[in-house]
Amino acid sequence: MIAAPRWALGVIVVAGIAAAIALQVHRDTSYPEVASPVEELYFTSGDSIGRLALSFKPMLADIYWIRAVQYFGSTRLDAKGAAESGTESTSHYDLLYPLLDVTTTLDPHFNIAYRFGAIFLAEGYPSGPGRPNLALKLLDKGFAVNPTKWQYLYDKAFVAYWSLKDYQAAAHWFSEAAKVKGAPPWMPGLAAFMLGQGGDRRSSRFLWQQILDTSEQQYMRDNATFHLTQLDMADVADQLTALLQRYRAQTGQSVMDFSPLVRAGWLRAVPADPEGVPFLIDPQTGRATLHRPSRYAPLPDEQPGAAAGPR
Amino acid sequence: MTPAIDVEDLTKDYKVGFWRPRPYRALDRLTLQVQPGEVFGFLGPNGAGKTTTLKLLMQLVFPTAGRASILGRPVGDLGVRQRIGYLPENPYFYDNLTAEELLEYFASLFGYSRSDCQARASRLLDEVGLGAERRMQLRKYSKGMVQRVGIAQSLLNDPEVLFLDEPMSGLDPLGRRDIRELILRLRERGTTIFFSSHILSDAETLCSRVAIVAGGRLATVGTLRDMSGFEVRGWEVVMTGVASTVLATLASRGVKATTVADGRYTFDLPKDASAEAFVAEMHAGGARLVSVAPVHTTLEEIFVQQVHKAGSAREGAL
Amino acid sequence: MSPKSLGRIALAVFRESVRERVLYNLVGFALLVIGASYLIGQMTAGQDVKIIKDLGLSAMAIFGLFIAIFIGIGLVSKEIERRSIYSLLAKPVRRSELVVGKFLGLALTVAINLAVMTVVWYGVLAYMSWSEIDLVKKGWEAPAADPRLLVAVYLLFVQLVLVIALALFFSTFAEPLWATVFTFGLYVAGHFSADLKHFDVIVGDSPVRYVTTGLYYLLPNMATFDVKNAVVHAQLVPYGYVLTATAYGAFYSLALVAAAVLIFSKKDFK
Fold first, then answer.
1. Which of B149, B187, C14, C177 has a CA 20 to 30 Å removed from the CA of B301?
2. Nearest to C106 by CA among C38, C171, C28
3. Cβ contact A263:A196 at 8 Å
């Protein structure tokens, strides 16, 4: 009845699928950029996708959310690799805002997309996109649809504080957030604090700690931990700088690194960041600091208005 | 001589039911043989297993047990299919093709040259009585027209054995007469014909032998005369010019007479009576003979009898 | 398996499908969209060529899909349901030849349809090229009637052949409605299968990850054949990629057709 015996056909079926899978693997490794579903953001308007997707909008929102997270992660890896090898990263997170925009258009109540977007869009260059204005735009969109979410205004204040170093604006948004029903009682106090102290490490620490304590997402908590550790490193750098000054005063020596202090018993070991990258002495300022390849470099400045890097 | 069709213990079980499928025996150990040149009638009520048998012979379904062969080769043999024809029950073809195109396409599958395909298609369309309609798409055909196309496609390769499943279905009396005559012509040519039907009158006129199946089992097989339950019950004699006095005499002897027309009567004689003697006696009285015929159990009576028997057997078995 | 039988069956399938009225409606619609894209292009300054290319390819993809599914199911599953296939099975043709012949005929039909749509599409693009002034044309990333666009059409064809193989496979055991649902469902799933690979971000280290990764590899990856964005922006699609994608489509289709032959050969036609 058939040209080939039945078992031969079975072999063909299995072999065919196996070959297909092998080819998929080959394609993924050899040609990751071609036909990559993220880069082909063919419809950039969430509305047109929404109309096409009809009742599957929430599911589609999930898919775009996953793509946004994956896109951010892989682009960040690219950026990190580029930083380590000293080259320019090819992607500038250009698609992050559109992806988040589509996600939140398809599902306007997609809470995490707004908050994630806010933090990571504002994340400074070169490890992040450094687009705080887009972060604000996304949060405005979120608050317009969800007027009970004081958290979005809080996030706006955070972006103003951390990325734009605009303490007046931060204070303004904190007090706006305080006006929303359900906002925590310490909000007005924070606003006042902002006006008074602005740029202080304590307030920064306070805000990051809030995120660490309230976030349900692991990567947001990790991000907050990172920033808190970075602040710790800034504290350590200050202490080391003070130590250096005392050493110079006492011995009259100007040192290039910390080994003399270790030899002299002033330090037990060469101070380093949690990953073991040692602190250095900046030749121009004479201050202790961390440089690349430390993850925590550059350390946050204390001075208000000082730029953290190019936008 | 190799039988044209040889079936031995052919059995087919179907699984019925979704959650716990139980076997349903559509055909139970069918055994029969059809000799070359026979016109064989395969009769039975609906659901008796007629179509199942035909499908098993055409290898549209696979047997659970038993075997069958056609022209000495096992069913499904590719070479044999070159020499047989098949008309399915309630056939349906391709809406968008014309009858001509369909026949030419089917003919091409036998490996004939293009001109040969066209010649065969044309000839057969003539033979089944499809004229200009042959260039219309099949979607526009009536049931009867489709049936004719079906018969035509079964004859494309001048088959040695022809399998027909309800060949008369959908045809008006004129159509049925045409097909009857076609079958007779094929019989003249020596084609073996195996056809299933539930129209007994066709079987009675056309078939040399019949088989009756009921409830998936073979009830009886053979020529009409050889069948169980067959008996001659008497004689029917038709005569004209019978004087009324003769009638009165016959009536007193217990011979029943029925008036057919003025002066023409039908006489029912019992089985053991001598028809010749009766005719001679009437002839002497001035009457003239029109016809003498045996009265026997009809196929229908045998059919009903067998089906009943099978039905009660099945019930008893359940 | 004799090539002559295959050829005859394939041609019969082609002829049967070419007469399908729905087919003409679908192709007509596609041509309408391609023509309309020219008008739409006129309304958006500068982006017109890109829009025609985009819309044209999308129209061909969508309508090509409908055609593939419609004739794929109609010419096999419906045929089995309506029993038109009985008389065909009684002819001296192997069941395997029937299945493969049908497949080839369907592939031929899709190829011809795509060719027709491509010709019209290129016609529109060529007209654009001819009618537009040089200044505007300098701003285009790529020429209007860019021959590199053919790569996208070719890969679309490979994708549709895979869809046909799917439709054929499901037709061997499912009724027309279900066969359509399964085929279309797998097509949609295949487009998002790439996202399955990245599910580990959401799912973490749980064993669900193995399921999603396994599904990613097992499901037919339809997004592989979608190089619309690349060709529209005149980015080069490497030959190796085209080869890999073709081989992927070929092997997967081969597996599906072999499976269809397996099922069809032992099928009881009740």
1. B187
2. C171
3. no
Instruction: Map out the domains of chain B as residue ranges.
Output: 5-222, 232-296
Backbone angles phi, psi at B295, to 5 degrees: -100, 120
- According to the per-residue pLDDT averaged within each range, which of A45-54, A56-65, B279-288 is highest? B279-288
Q: Residue A306 pLDDT more than 50?
A: no
The CATH code that applies to domain B5-222 is 3.40.50.300
Cβ-Cβ contacts under 8 Å, B94 against chain C:
12, 16, 84
C96 and A3 within 8 Å at the Cβ level: the answer is: yes
Q: Does A34 touch chain C (CB under 8 A)?
A: yes
pTM: 0.70
Residue-range domains of chain A with CATH: 47-208 (1.25.40.10), 209-311 (no CATH)
Fold (CATH) for B232-296: Alpha-Beta Plaits (3.30.70)
Candidate from A67-76, A96-105, C110-119 with smallest mean pLDDT: A67-76
Strands B161-165 and B192-197: parallel
Q: Does C15 touch chain B (CB under 8 A)?
A: yes
- Could C90 and B81 be called an inter-chain contact, meaning their C-beta atoms sit closer than 8 Å? yes
Q: What chain B residue is nearest to C1 in terms of C-alpha separation?
A: B78
Contact of B101 with chain C, judged by CB distance below 8 Å, is answered with yes
Domain residue spans of chain C: 3-265
Helix (H, G, I), strand (E, B) or coil at B32: strand
**Among candidates C83, C92, C94 on the partner chain, residue whose Cβ is nearest the Cβ of B88:** C83
Q: Is B230's Cβ below 8 Å from some Cβ in C?
A: no
> What sign has the CA pseudo-torsion C37, C43, C47, C48?
positive
CB-based contact B272:B255 (threshold 8 Å): no
Q: Is C78 on the interface with B (CB under 8 A)?
A: no
